[in-house]
């Protein structure tokens, strides 16, 4: 139960086991009235241990806090029923610790922790490469090295650059934007399990963790965009009004990433093995999202069934990548985007953001237990 101050309150101890006796000893400095229920302990023994022997009903009616230390046996199962506990809670205005609040209350609690979320995200970002010699430079180097490897394998060896104008800006933009989504989802798999000590020690809306980790990945992307801008300038892509479209595109992607990350956080909290499968799922998703090649060229002709073509075109990762390419690269035109690209991207963000949040919230009481 989550209650209020306990000084000079009455505490009920059910069961005089070794742990129960130790709890009584720890309560002595707080000047508490301690009631003890144990059918195998008489009043004199209870008094010597610093407690007053009481019946179970009297203990529940008088105590502000009830602490149970009884073995799980047929005789003790359901010893404290729902009715006595409900009466205890109603009498003292108690609530169940960790109980799931209503959705509006949960949103308010999350907003109240906004400073913690921002600080947690920044601290995680700062600590990420703290042990490396180059430190935070790796935030930029990692996607650049990935882009270099993909250029050599796909652009040179597999010649996917054929027919794609401004292939280097095309490729680097795809790699940077895809990394944002992949890293957010991967971080989501560790949101609960990687912070289990924090979850079990403190009472706060658990959604703070996947949201903070998604914000961390957004912060990392913003660092990487500096390098992306230099590459675009080096290859003749100069600022123009369409660059402003990168802001709503990234905002929609951030909402989408956060929703998926929260859904994955709940799944992996219950089934940790999902975290081991995530890299394989992400790799398959990357290859079907046009990161290293043009889906527009791939889908030309009659070789691809129409249903597959629609699925690939409206794949959310591909949509966000292509919207960023449209915003930043001169040669990537509106005609290369699928119809209603912005509306569909907004739909993906709204549906996944809201659904992921609600899905995570529904399991609020289970995180850190078990």
Helix content: 55-70%
Largest sheet properties: 4 strands, parallel
Structural class comes to mainly alpha
- Morphology: elongated
Number of helices: 16
Major sheet strand order: 3-2-1-4
Distance between the termini: 19 Å
What is the N-to-C succession of helices and strands? EHEHEHEHHHHHHHHHHHHH
Mean pLDDT: 85
Radius of gyration: 28 Å
Unreliably modeled segments: none
**How many strand elements?**
4
Strand content: under 5%
Give the SSE layout.
Blueprint: E1 10-14, H1 18-27, E2 33-37, H2 43-48, E3 52-53, H3 56-62, E4 65-68, H4 82-92, H5 103-112, H6 114-128, H7 138-157, H8 167-189, H9 196-201, H10 208-234, H11 246-270, H12 274-287, H13 295-298, H14 306-313, H15 316-328, H16 341-361
Parallel strand pairs: 1-2, 1-4, 2-3
Q: Could you please describe the fold and organization of this structure?
A:
- By secondary structure, the protein is mostly helical.
- 59% of the residues lie in helices and 4% in strands.
- The protein has 16 helices and 4 strands.
- It has helices at residues 18-27, 43-48, 56-62, 82-92, 103-112, 114-128, 138-157, 167-189, 196-201, 208-234, 246-270, 274-287, 295-298, 306-313, 316-328, 341-361, and strands spanning 10-14, 33-37, 52-53, 65-68.
- It has a 4-stranded parallel beta sheet, sandwiched between helices.
- Helix 2 (43-48) links the parallel strand 2 and strand 3 (52-53).
- Helix 7 packs across helix 10 and helix 8 runs antiparallel to helix 12 (274-287).
- The longest helix is centred in the middle third of the chain and has 27 residues, at 208-234.
- The radius of gyration is 28 Å and the shape is elongated.
């Amino acid at each position: 139960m989550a209650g209020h101050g306990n000084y000079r309150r009455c505490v009920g101890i059910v069961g005089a086991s070794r742990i129960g006796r130790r709890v009584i000893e720890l309560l002595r400095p707080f000047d508490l009235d301690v009631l003890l229920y144990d059918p195998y302990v008489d009043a004199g023994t209870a008094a010597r241990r610093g407690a007053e022997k009481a019946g179970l009903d009297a203990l529940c009616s008088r105590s502000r806090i009830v602490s149970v230390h009884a073995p799980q046996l047929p005789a003790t199962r359901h010893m404290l029923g729902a009715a006595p506990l409900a009466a205890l809670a109603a009498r003292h205005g108690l609530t169940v610790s960790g109980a799931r609040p209503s959705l509006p209350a949960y949103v308010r609690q999350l907003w109240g922790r906004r400073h913690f979320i921002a600080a947690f995200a920044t601290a995680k970002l700062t600590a990420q490469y703290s042990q490396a010699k180059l430190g935070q430079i790796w935030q930029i180097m990692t996607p650049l090295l990935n882009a270099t490897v993909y250029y050599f394998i796909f652009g040179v060896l597999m010649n996917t650059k054929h027919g794609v104008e401004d292939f280097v800006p095309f490729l680097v933009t795809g790699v940077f934007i895809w990394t944002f989504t992949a890293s957010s989802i991967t971080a989501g798999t560790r949101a609960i399990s990687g912070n289990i000590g924090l979850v079990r020690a403190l009472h706060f809306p658990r959604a703070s963790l996947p949201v903070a980790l998604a914000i961390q990945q957004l912060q990392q992307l913003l660092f990487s965009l500096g390098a992306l801008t230099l590459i675009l300038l080096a290859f003749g892509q100069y600022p123009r009004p369409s660059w402003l479209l990168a802001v709503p595109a990234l905002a929609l992607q951030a909402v989408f990433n956060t929703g998926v990350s929260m859904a994955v956080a709940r799944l992996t909290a219950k089934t940790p093995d999902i975290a081991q499968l995530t890299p394989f799922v992400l790799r398959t998703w990357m290859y079907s999202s046009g990161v290293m090649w043009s889906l527009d060229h791939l889908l030309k002709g009659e070789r691809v069934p129409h249903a597959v073509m629609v699925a690939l075109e409206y794949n959310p990762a591909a949509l966000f990548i292509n919207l960023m390419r449209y915003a930043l690269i001169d040669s990537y035109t509106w005609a290369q985007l699928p119809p209603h690209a912005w509306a569909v991207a907004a739909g993906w963000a709204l549906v996944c953001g809201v659904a992921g949040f609600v899905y995570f919230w529904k399991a609020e009481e289970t995180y850190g237990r078990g």
